[in-house]
Specification:
The protein is an alpha/beta fold. Helices cover 28% and strands 22% of the residues.
């Protein structure tokens, strides 16, 4: 879990500033978009690179009633840190820490019989004697986790009900996940909703009484109110990033990016025209110019695929990565400008100061903004601001 801000007086090679006031405002905006549903703030993968514990606390302060993680280890770490309330985890493998999860009062996802067998076996061995909180996941068309409709779903639901009657589990949820909710009008959206309703009806007709039914991820939370059911799971939107440019930018939904990534320029020097820059000399200076060295690279999560295209703002001007991104550094052509060593180089932020955004880096690297923020490495300190503004 990333919570490693150095003292404010320490010189920083690089920093990822995390605005917790923006995160809280994003949670409130998302709650307003789904007023009839509870909101789960997904904090998997260290809160998409933002720091799981501070972000989880801020999300709960702003009204998130659930927290979500991929792995049980992530969820157990939240509980061990004192996070109260409902925490769900869904990415299980055989032999996972089922008993620990039950004793920590987590909600665990089950996609098939092997997982149901393991969680019921663990429930028999718990010290607390309390039933496991189990959510049955339906594969409505994504083709990843989840139980297939038809005979597989019937077998899982029937076995789960028997375990519930034995007092080993409590079926707390029925859920699924969209494949293409970030593509407005994609035919799979309605097909998945139809399949989800059918699978819900089957389970409920047999006597399942879930506390929550949920399928909406961030794009569905923003654009598909008919998918909200009892709970929406907001991931990337909590951090102020649109799931897809096709559905709109963050400001269109009242969201603000939470992370600003910057570094201190480490060197400025004059070079002649025809000077090769970085490995492979994929960039050669067109004439006499100045070069600036930015001391972050792909070991810090800066995508090598953005070599020659990644944007950065130095001295109030947009620059572009010159040549290849190296492991620890990259170079920009300053065009003759001479900013002082130590000048801030802003790689991305909210964009309201004219700086690039994570989406700009995603476009430069041929990827998605989710990956840009999530991949920022642990040697970049997270510096939290507005920690105390819980209103």
């Amino acid at each position: 879990m990333t919570e490693n801000a150095p003292p404010p007086t320490a010189p920083l090679r690089a920093r990822a500033e995390i605005d917790l006031a923006a995160l809280r405002a994003n949670v409130r905006a998302l709650r307003a978009l789904a007023p009839g549903a509870e909101l789960m703030a997904v904090v998997k993968s260290d809160a998409y690179g933002h720091g799981a514990l501070p972000c989880a606390r801020a999300a709960v302060e702003a009204g998130a009633t659930w927290l979500g993680t991929a792995t049980p280890e992530e969820a157990l770490a939240l509980r061990a840190a004192g996070l109260p309330g409902r925490i769900m985890c869904w990415l299980w493998t055989p032999g996972g820490p089922w008993r620990e999860a039950i004793e920590a009062d987590l909600d665990v996802s089950v996609s098939g019989m092997w997982a149901l067998d393991e969680v019921t076996s663990a429930a028999r061995q718990t010290r607390t004697g309390t039933p496991a909180r189990v959510q049955l996941k339906a594969d409505t068309g994504l083709g990843r986790g989840g139980c297939q409709p038809g005979d597989d779903w019937a077998e899982l639901v029937d076995a789960a009900l028997r375990a519930e009657w034995e007092g080993l589990i409590r079926i707390t949820g029925l859920w699924s996940h969209f494949a293409c909710a970030d593509e407005p009008g994609h035919p799979s959206i309605e097909a998945q909703l139809t399949r989800f309703r059918e699978m819900l009806s089957y389970a409920e007709n047999l006597g399942v009484r879930p506390e929550v039914r949920h399928i909406a991820n961030s794009p569905a939370t923003l654009t598909l109110p008919e998918s909200h059911f009892d709970l929406v799971r907001a991931g990337i939107a909590v951090y102020g990033i649109s799931p897809s440019p096709e559905i709109g930018g963050p400001a269109d939904f009242g969201l603000r990016p939470v992370m600003t990534l910057s570094a201190s320029v480490a060197l400025v020097k004059h070079v002649p025209g025809g000077h090769g820059v970085s490995y492979g000399h994929h960039y050669t200076t067109p004439g006499e110019t100045t070069l600036g060295l930015v001391p972050v690279g792909y070991a810090d999560g800066i995508p090598r695929h953005a070599s020659g295209t990644g944007p950065v703002m130095i001295g109030g001007k947009w620059r572009t990565v010159a040549g290849r991104v190296a492991m620890d550094q990259f170079v920009v052509d300053l065009g003759g400008d001479e900013p002082a060593t130590g000048t801030e180089a802003v790689l991305f932020g909210p964009g309201d100061r004219g700086e690039p955004t994570a989406e700009d880096w995603a476009q430069a690297a041929g990827t998605i903004a989710y990956e840009i923020v999530t991949r920022i490495g642990t040697r970049v300190p997270r510096v939290y601001v507005n920690e105390g503004q819980a209103g």
